[in-house]
Design goal:
This protein has 334 residues and is α+β, with helices and mostly antiparallel strands. It has helices at 45-56, 86-89, 126-135, 157-162, 203-214, 239-246, 259-262, 273-280, and strands at residues 2-5, 34-39, 61-63, 72-79, 94-102, 104-106, 115-118, 138-142, 151-152, 155-156, 172-185, 190-197, 218-228, 231-232, 256-257, 267-271, 290-295, 300-305, 310-317, 322-328. The protein has 3 domains: 19-92 and 230-261, 2-Layer Sandwich (Alpha-Beta Plaits), CATH 3.30.70; 94-228, 2-Layer Sandwich (Pseudouridine synthase); 264-328, PUA domain (Archaeosine Trna-guanine Transglycosylase, Chain: A, domain 4).
């Protein structure tokens, strides 16, 4: 057995080496895969996913985090057996770029809601905006928007709000790792930004709260997701490009990944055949039956057989050799 920190041994199979495959187009490859889609503005995430479903012919489909209708950008879509991986991909940090409009507050904290208040924003300086961004960087409590998909006593907060009900959504802890202000337009009361944040962060709420801090109110005027974990918007395809690819036109973008590729960056254990049989029965296996271990410093590990098939996902303490299976895959997943 060989243990490595942060990388695999030399000669490890190409699917785990981090190398980039050329663009792919066969429709069959999309049936049990992770697809990177560039969602357009004005289309809901559900509408986008259903179009992907029709285009690929997938009988099962899911996602790793939605985008609001007015937003665009990276939507990570899972099909077939790969839908079992969505819960792990949801944990990834997200990156965005967008525009905040000062002086106008809306019901939904974005452009789709009715205006509820307007205040002068001409007196807000660039220095004040930069200082405000610094205050909203780091670990903090955030209250999600009233109009959101969060469930309150079994019903969506947005449905309750539309029915005129009082919606009390509790604050939750989020982390904004980076909040960089770009262009500032003092006359128009706008500024651009780039943000990287933890899962569960609402950029609409961030814009709203910055407006309150600046004393003007604000809403999110534009939003584009540029990354989710190690997935990048540059690899994503539009719905039109997806249709062309499924029709046989190869894409230069690496938008379609096998499940094992999608889980790159997690810890990895490659095991012998004896261990594979134990795992499929839900039983632990001894360390001696591991061919290789890649330790990335976390507890989440993917477990592969020597043919690079994904057998299981587990919480593992490799030092104490404690294994807790989160998913065991009885069918072959590459």
């Amino acid at each position: 057995m060989k243990t490595t920190k942060g990388r695999t041994r030399t000669g490890t199979r190409s699917g785990n080496s981090g190398t980039t495959r050329p663009g792919v187009s066969p429709a069959g490859d999309a049936l049990n895969a992770i697809l990177l889609i560039d969602k357009p503005e004005g289309k809901t995430s559900n509408e986008t996913i259903r179009q992907v479903e029709r285009t690929t012919g997938a009988c099962k489909i899911g996602h790793a985090g939605t985008l609001d209708r007015f937003a665009s950008g990276l939507l990570v879509v899972c099909t077939g057996t790969a839908t079992k991986l969505a819960r792990y991909l949801l944990e990834d940090d997200k990156s965005y770029e967008g525009v905040v409009k000062l002086g106008v507050s809306t019901e939904t904290d974005d452009t789709e809601g009715a205006v509820i208040e307007e205040r002068p924003a001409a007196g807000v300086t660039g220095d004040a905006i930069l200082e405000c961004a610094r205050k909203f960087t780091g670990v903090q409590l955030q209250r999600p928007p009233r109009y959101s998909a969060l469930k309150i006593q079994g019903r969506r907060a947005s449905d309750r709000a539309r029915n005129g009900e009082q919606v009390d959504i509790p604050e939750r802890t989020i982390t904004v790792y980076e909040l960089a202000v770009g262009d500032i337009d003092p006359d128009g009361g706008r500024f651009t930004f780039r943000a990287r944040c933890s899962k569960g962060t609402y950029i609409r709420s961030l814009a709203r709260d910055m407006g309150r801090e600046l004393g003007t109110g604000a809403h999110l005027e534009r939003l584009r997701r540029t990354a989710a974990g190690h997935f990048q918007i540059g690899d994503a395809v539009t719905l039109e490009e997806l249709e062309a690819s499924m029709a046989g036109c190869p894409s230069a973008k690496r938008f379609l990944l096998k499940p094992v590729e999608a889980l790159a960056g997690r810890g990895m254990v490659i095991v012998r055949e004896a261990a594979r049989k134990r795992i499929l029965n839900g039983a632990p296996f001894p360390a001696e039956e591991a061919v290789e271990i890649r330790d990335n410093g976390g507890k989440l590990f993917i477990i592969l057989d020597e043919s690079e098939n994904l057998i299981a996902i587990a919480d593992m303490d490799i030092h104490k050799w404690h294994i807790k299976y989160l998913n065991v895959f009885n069918s072959v997943i590459q």
